[in-house]
Amino acid sequence: MKPHAEIAEVWPRDGRVRLVGHIHGHPAEGEWRLLLTRRSHTEQRLDYPAQVKGDRFEGELPVADLAAATDTAEADIGAEDGAGAGVEEWDIHLTDGEVELRAGRRLDDIHGKKKIMVFPEQRVRGIGVRPYYTVKDNLSLECRTGAST
Questions:
Q1: What is the pLDDT of residues 46-59, one digit of tens each?
Q2: CA distances (Å), origin 7, targets 67, 78, 104, 138
Q3: Using an 8 Å Cβ cutoff, are 110 and 116 in contact?
Q4: Average pLDDT of 72-94?
């Protein structure tokens, strides 16, 4: 299995998303950060400190930062779907500055988490932010403008 950041816990509450997990398949030495990459514009990135002890990591990100980044990009995500809502996705990695390990949950033998695990949305300035698992069981964040669904 490829080295990755194995997510054990996702805590979306109080205006933050807290992530806890283990670094799998790569030495856990040095300084690590949570790295968020806007999927439609990969040059747009946000990063936050991660605490690492042994192979265990922990970090959190404020949803207001995602809402601000999405709000400024609202013209890019638009409201072409007719429902008055646009969606922007951010992928989560753990990085030491040299390697980027994709955050996901693959070691639990539960496949298809996208349809099984649903996290609550937090709303900031009219933008809903919600963690979700992708079809490949990676963890990403969805920012939705307009009406909540």
A1: 999 999 999 999 99
A2: 23, 31, 5, 9
A3: yes
A4: 67
Tokens of 105: 């949950």
Show the tokens assigned to 15. 């205006």
First to last CA, the chain: 35
Q: What is the distance of C-alpha 64 from the center of its chain?
A: 13
pLDDT digits (tens, 9 = 90+) for 4-37: 999 999 999 999 999 999 999 999 999 999 999 9
User: pTM for the full model?
Assistant: 0.88
What backbone torsions phi and psi does residue 89 show, to the nearest 5 degrees?
Answer: -120, 140
Closest to 4 in 3D by CA, of 141, 142, 115, 139: 139
The number of residues making up the chain comes to 149
The DSSP secondary structure of 119-135, one letter per residue, reads PPPEEETTEEEEEEE-T
- In this prediction, residue 36 carries a pLDDT of 98
Tokens representing 17 are 């998303």
CA distance 57 to 53: 7
Dist. CA 37–CA 101, nearest whole Å? 12
The 10 Å Cβ neighbour count of residue 129 is 26
Higher pLDDT, 42 or 109: 42
